[in-house]
Amino acid sequence: MPRKVFISFLGTSKYNECEYVKDDFAYRSCFIQEATYRYLTSQEDWSDNDRILILLTQQAEEKNWKDNGHKDRKTGDIIQSKGLNSILQDIAGQTVIETIKGIPEGKDEAEIYSIFEKVYDYLEDGDLLYFDLTHGFRYLPMLILVLGNYAKFLKNVSVKSITYGNWEMSANGTRPAPIIDLISLSELQDWTFAAGQFIQSGNVDQLLLLSRAEYLPLLRDSEGMSEKAKQFRRFVDNLRDVVNERQSCRGIEIFKGDSIKKIKDSYKTLSINSSRPYAPIFRKISDTWSGFNDCFDTLNGVKAAQWCFDKKLYLQAATCLEETVLYHCGRKVNLDPINKDERVSLSGAFDYASNSFSHRKKESDYSDDIRRIGKDLLSSFHDIITPFQGLRENVRNDFNHAGVRPDPLSATAIIKKLEKYLRQISNALLGDSMDAMISNEKRFFINLSNHPYANWGKEQIEAAEQCGMIIDMPFPVVPPSSLKNDIEDLCDTKVSEIIKDYPTSSFIHIMGEMNLTYALVQRLKALGYTCLASTTERKVEINENGDKVVHFEFVQFREY
User: How many angstroms separate the CA atoms of 264 and 239, rounded?
Assistant: First the structure.
């Protein structure tokens, strides 16, 4: 059974009494440690296996840990009052109270690191940590966040709460002071690190663990949490399936694109409040697959090879690339690479096509069928013959034999050759530069207005098309009676719609009701989108009847 550990720094001030509150809990005390511990024990039982750990500077020990530590400023008389030690002894029950005394004041890096080490050395493997950072030094929140993550990695601890008693809200003790739990910052770090681990290496293990947590912190305040939690788990499960296909080189499944469709569909159902910091994390994860087709496409295999290479899965990259070329080219010349005999013919035809460049063998060394198929390959896939043979002979075979063969490539050399062949084959098969075709982000120009671009002039359409594919998106109707909360709700809905379907490389043309426009621009710019307004020049003409005719000519799109 892991032990629960409540950890708090004790300060030196003479603390005034106030009522600390959290949810339905309320307790009046001079010490936030007493109020917080009472709150924690109101939520779950604490036993003799658990600990209260108070960190004390010498001055804090004298003034607030021991009884009667303060004097009246005017008279100099000792103020009769219980210290925190006595108070905790009264309420701790079986829970063991411990201290780390002589904590330095943290006047330099060495002292700060000394505090870090003292707390870390106290922790045991698997501890459940409850931090209170109300009192102490200004660097304390950073120290706690770093220490928590450090101990999670090295001692498998769990950070259960990071609380702060907001005395400032109490108006000198006359109003309740909320106990604020900052655990969401630690949880956000967990999700950020897990997402970063996936983006860099394709590892989804930590995301799977977080999605199966007892509750998802990003849904803590949401209604219908159970269904929304299922949505997140479904998304991460689908993410795992896509990754597993690539790590295990499941070529046919990769070509089909079914798992890509599932991950895209499950992302669209996610209930992410667009004002929370989690939305960009999940959008970045989802954008990883935006370049893949969600229907049958053999060239998904080329993109899978690039994905594997980027994640340093070099053997998988070489395997996916070779098998994709064989399948794609074989189908084009009416051969089935899954059929053993036809695969042998296809392999021989590639050798024949390659021989046309190197002249290692005579024409007579090949059968009529092999020469015929080889010529078809040369006609349709001239640019990939040489890199494909290089991939098979220099890279794939070397990988499969673990370099245990004559003249093996060094690790650096084999990676460089794989990268070269991947780029050459990708450029040939995808019909454009790999950088453009395998980019994770497509560019869009979102026309968020009630003026469809079909009604624009030629100059305005051309200017928009330079930014990306134009997508019309109606600007919401804003009743004149709408209040500020109504505007925020409309903004939340529209931003959620945008971030689910369009990457941050998109340009958002926003023209509409001014309050909602202002809210949308603020929110979207904060998320990384480029927000534009269209500018026009007012032209006035007098027609033959003497009537004044006003029209507007487009000038430019200008960033907000």
Answer: 10
